[in-house]
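Posting for a labmate who doesn't have an account.
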Amino acid sequence: MPDTYLKLYRGPQETEIEIAPQTAEEDCVTVSIGEVLPLIADAVNSERTWLSDFEHDDITISRDLYEVLSAYQYYRRPSA
């Protein structure tokens, strides 16, 4: 039986790569609510655990949508 030699892989060689810092604008994407809402609703209904990773993230919505959601939240309360 021939001798077996094992090589230890230590990963890629570290090189000095300069990465430019990201701005807040580069970290954002603008999409329509119609594109995102069905995916979020499905994730909530399916109880996907990755949703909890984003539960403290801020989102930006239009003032109109905020007012509609606020009214909806008020009127859907059982005591209302």
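Reply:
Got it, the structure tokens are right above this. DSSP finds two helices and no strands in the chain.
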